[in-house]
Design goal:
By secondary structure, this protein is of the alpha/beta class. It is built from 11 helices and 9 strands. A 5-stranded parallel sheet has the order 7-6-5-8-9. It has a 4-stranded parallel sheet with strand order 2-1-3-4. Helix 2 crosses helix 11 and helix 5 crosses helix 11. The longest helix has 20 residues. The two termini are 16 Å apart. It binds phosphoric acid mono(formamide)ester. The site of phosphoric acid mono(formamide)ester (CP) has 9 residues, from helix 2. Phosphoric acid mono(formamide)ester (CP) binds next to helix 2.
């Protein structure tokens, strides 16, 4: 096995490496039976210190579909964390059992910290607090390529909770590497993109806007996000902001015929369910595509070939 690689943030892979993941994910999607034994004998540790539906289940399904097996926990209350065990001790222990790990943790930087304890097991960041969510980005890039056939020259509106929305932070980091993309950051003042992220896109073509209706007509992609209740200190503040944006039929009438609406999910109120049958709303397809991306990612980090 070559140098131990982890996937903590989008920049951990080059654009060329992402391209090879896209090709592999596409081939897995077209020829799944070719891959059904390529991780025979391998074990994935699924370490979820925070709730998840899509990320956890798609990783676990991904490993099962590759012929491997899964251990882990979906709730830290069922682990020895409750007895006071440190993250480092948990990881050193799990490394003795598994070939690859996936970690979601409420603390920003936890996945990066995890890499400090590991010597043989690649680890994948499945979301660290309000910071990064790179495998959602892999999912998102695969989705954008499928519906727009390119990752450059796109006008992308990010709408909602840009402060705590880690999927937005990771996707911006990935898309700013491609030429001629424009970002429209649509949020109330309280939920604007954090300063460290704004600094990262200083050289990029971006603007901030509060009114979605004012900007929707020019977008190629509208990336809606949930207001992240679990990251708010004040419940009253969350209640005040949670329904700031609701995408409905009236607003969608203003959008282009080929604009796509993406959402990392879960959705709360920010997209009306009436829109689910609109072919431009691709969020459930997006969630499914993520499984193929994660299959490709597991293969890459385990250096498995068919
Ligand atoms: N998109 C996403 O991370 O969803 P889950 O929280 O359900 O994993």
């Amino acid at each position: 096995m070559g140098r131990l690689r982890h996937f903590i943030q989008p920049q951990d892979f080059t654009i060329e490496e992402f391209e090879s993941l896209f090709r592999l994910a596409n081939d897995i999607l077209s020829n799944p039976s070719n891959y059904s034994h390529c991780c025979d004998g391998k074990i994935l540790a699924s370490l979820f210190f925070e709730p998840s539906t899509r990320t956890r289940l798609s990783f676990e399904t991904a490993m099962n579909r590759l012929g491997g097996r899964v251990i882990g926990f979906a709730d830290p209350a069922a682990s020895s964390t409750t007895k006071g065990e440190s993250l480092g001790d948990t990881l050193r222990t799990v490394e003795g059992y598994a070939d690859i790990g996936v970690i979601r943790h409420p603390k920003e930087g936890a996945a990066h910290l995890a890499t400090k304890y590991l010597t043989t097991m690649p680890i994948i960041n499945a979301g660290d607090g309000g910071h990064q969510h790179p495998t959602q980005t892999l999912t998102d890039l695969i989705t954008i390529r499928r519906f727009h056939q390119r990752l450059e020259g796109l006008k992308i509106g990010f709408c909602g909770d840009l402060k705590f929305g880690r999927t937005v932070h990771s996707l911006i980091r990935a898309l700013k590497r491609y030429p001629n993309n424009q970002f429209v950051l649509i949020s109330p003042e309280e939920l604007q993109l954090p300063e460290y992220m704004q600094n990262e896109i200083k050289e990029t073509n971006y603007c901030e806007e509060e009114d979605l209706s004012e900007v929707i007509e020019d977008l190629d992609i509208l990336y809606m996000t949930r207001v992240q209740k679990e990251r708010f200190v004040s419940e009253a503040e969350y209640e005040r902001l949670k329904d700031f944006y609701i995408l409905n039929e009236e607003k969608m009438k203003l959008a282009k015929e080929d604009m796509i609406v993406m959402h990392p999910l879960p959705r709360v109120n920010e997209i009306s369910q009436d829109l689910d049958s609109d072919p431009r709303c691709v969020y459930f397809k997006q969630a499914k595509l993520g499984m193929y991306g994660r299959m490709a990612l597991i293969m890459k980090l385990l250096e498995v070939e068919i």
